[in-house]
Amino acid sequence: MRAGSFAGIFIALGRITGLLSEFLILFQLVLIGRIRFIEKQFGHDELNNVHRWVGTYIIIFLVAHPLLLSIGWGSMTDTSYWAQFLSFISDWHDVVNALIGLIIFTIAIILSLTVFRKKLKYERWHFTHLFIYIAIVLALEHQTKSGDLTRAPALYYWLTLNYAVFGLILFYRFLRPFYLFARHRFKIEKIVAESNDVTSIYISGKDINKFSFDAGQFAIINFLKWGMLSSHPFSISCAPNNDYLRFTIKSLGDFTNRIKELSPGTGVIIDGPLGTFTEKKSKTKRFLFIAAGVGITPIAGIIDSLTKKGITDITLLYCIRSAAQIPFRAHFDELPIKTYYLISDAGAGYGGKEYISGRLDKDKIKQLAPDYLDCDIFFCGPPNMHDPVTNMLKELGVRPGRLHYEKFSF
After folding, report:
1. How do the residues of the chain divide into helix, strand and coil, expressed in percent and rounded to 5?
2. pLDDT per residue as tens digits for the range 123-157
3. How many other CB atoms sit within 10 Å of the CB of residue 108?
């Protein structure tokens, strides 16, 4: 077969797409592996955006790999492409396993598309993605027992690359959280109802002051209670202190609706801290915080941290549906900051803090925070508010370096 022949070109492209598929899948694992030195450098949001973008295109390489090889080998042996594909499955070693892996990857990628992801509960979405580890093992077995990676040095390079990535995942996603639990013995100290649908979980532990985090970060937590063992990300809603961690959780689904069933003394596994939504991003000593719904949780921690340091040039615009849903209201009212609650069912003042009727818009920002262009602006809210609010702020002339946010969505 001539190197430049039709068949040779398609076979070469088929091999390349197979290698690229596995390489990008390993890259995906690194992006979502909670690897601290990477996560601290780029932040959850940036890594998550790249993860979604890469995932969308992996499927192209995964499908192209068997398709191109079927065309190439079929042309070389004068066999129909479909017959050649069936021959791969029946006659070639480990191709069936690779096909199973391809199906698993395809399902996981499809379920990650926005149109499907919005309809899935977090627990189910997370569970389906665990099968990806099985798919990677199947693909690795296929690659190292047939094709271009059966002999040294290519075999050793590929095995080293895979084992290195899996080693990082094993350490950061599994071993480190259990190490932290063994060291600190995290447990629920108390449970406090902050509003009619928001609950704070206070967590204590051994030498908890040595669990280092920055206000505004989040963690992946597992409550050691049967029926509530699944992993969930929640923001830390307090500033660093020597006594406790606090996670403030809104009832939004099956899992969060059961938070009040927990009891003091329940063990907690904590994987974190994660995220870069912290005051370290600020360029000034003047702050505008815009929170919506449960987006107040990381912002509450940052505000507490700033006021403890004597920084009080702070304006908080809190968008909420009703006065009954405002967590930390009494606490915010005591702080020496300007706080405005943008709600729909009241227009009167409360304890020196002001209720503003209606939704957030450009005029309200100009009126309530006239110095917004001189501030570092932190925004956190539900995904459906992210683009409208950030676009509004950009249209108002806020410089990109002064606008800070994380989407906090899966």
Report:
1. 55, 20, 30
2. 677 777 777 888 888 877 777 776 667 777 878 88
3. 19
Domain residue ranges of the chain, discontinuous segments joined by +: 6-174, 183-274, 279-405
CATH topology of domain 183-274: Elongation Factor Tu (Ef-tu); domain 3 (2.40.30)
Q: Using CB atoms within 10 Å of the CB of residue 52, give its burial: 0 to 12 exposed, 13 to 18 middle, 19+ buried.
A: middle
Q: pLDDT of 341-387, one tens digit each?
A: 888 665 444 444 567 777 888 989 998 999 999 999 999 988 888 88
Instruction: Report in angstroms the alpha-carbon separations of 91 from 63, 87, 88, 103.
Output: 20, 6, 6, 19
Query: Which of 53, 67, 46 minimizes the C-alpha distance to 24?
Result: 53
* Residue 17: Cβ within 10 Å count: 19
CA distance 149 to 73: 19
What is the sign, positive or negative, of the torsion defined by CA atoms of 303, 304, 309, 313? positive
Q: How high is the pLDDT of residue 357?
A: 77
Task: Give the separation between CA 303 and CA 6, rounded to whole angstroms.
Answer: 64
Who contacts 183 (Cβ-Cβ below 8 Å, separation ≥6)? Answer: 206, 207
Q: What are the pLDDT digits (tens) for 80-118?
A: 888 888 888 877 767 887 888 888 888 877 777 666 666
Question: Which run of H or of E encompasses 146?
Answer: none
CA angle 11, 14, 19 (to 5 degrees): 130
Count of H-run helices and E-run strands, the chain: 13, 13
Q: Is the pLDDT assigned to residue 45 strictly greater than 60? A: yes
* Architecture (CATH level 2) of domain 279-405: 3-Layer(aba) Sandwich (3.40)
User: Does the predicted TM-score (pTM) go above 0.85?
Assistant: no
Query: Is 279-405 in the same CATH topology as 183-274?
Result: no
